[in-house]
Amino acid sequence: MNLKALDRDISPDSCLPMALRYAAYTILIFAATSSLPAFLQDGSIAAFKEGGWVEWCQLILLGATSGLYFYEAFFSHHHQTIFHFLGCLSAFAAIREMDAFLDRVIPLMGWKIGFLVILYALFSAYAHRKIFLRQIRIFLKTHSVVILWAGFIIAVPIGQLLGHGDFLQALMGDNYERNYKRVIEETLELIGYILVFAGTVEAAVEYLCHR
Question: CA-CA distance, 95 to 62, in Å (whole number)?
Fold first, then answer.
């Protein structure tokens, strides 16, 4: 596939399939958020703790996101560098979500071993920097970037800031409990990861039309 042609004409597929996909993403988010109260019966937040239901959903989403990026990178001929880089970022996020487990099984480094994935991604991007920069320029013109950006914003800055203990303690005063921090943070991360996965699906579909 000619990159110049792809650069000139990156357009979504027909409106109906896209509308159906967006409807599916919306239903998935509604289903995930509306089911959360069922896991808070009797004041228990076990579903939001390490190894709980919510964390497993996050890992599945991140694993599927990373796997889809690597799959696309392996079979593509014109966007493998950027997808390979994004796959590494998703893999790092999944490793970060397993911090408690990795801290137990890996001495000294723990979950920080995931930074090796980041170093590898940066080295690979630098080694193919001309292609990488060109593919970034093309990728930024796709509508999938908007969904990925929204997912990142919700999962990281909003999730971390609204779920920050100091903020909630200042807001709630004597009514503050640490459980609030975990529930808010994990919920926002879950929603953010759903959007990241949706953006990844959109990127795969968009580029699939130009293979």
Answer: 9
Which pairs count as long-range contacts for 39-44, CB under 8 Å and 24+ apart, including other chains?
40/183
The answer to whether 203 touches 141, Cβ cutoff 8 Å, is no
**Around Cβ 206, how many Cβ atoms within 10 Å?**
22
- What tokens were used for 73? 């990178």
Q: Count CA atoms within 13 Å of residue 102 on its CB side.
A: 14
Geometric angle at alpha carbon 106, from 104 and 107, rounded to 5°: 95
The pTM for the full model equals 0.85
H-state helical runs in the chain: 3-8, 15-35, 53-75, 80-97, 99-105, 115-127, 129-139, 144-153, 159-162, 165-172, 178-208
Alpha carbon of 198 to those of 73, 178, 183: distances in Å? 17, 31, 23
pLDDT digits (tens, 9 = 90+) for 112-123: 999 999 999 999
For 139, the token pair is: 């990728």
Per residue in 138-164, pLDDT tens? 899 888 999 999 999 999 888 877 766
Listed by start position, the domains of the chain span 45-208
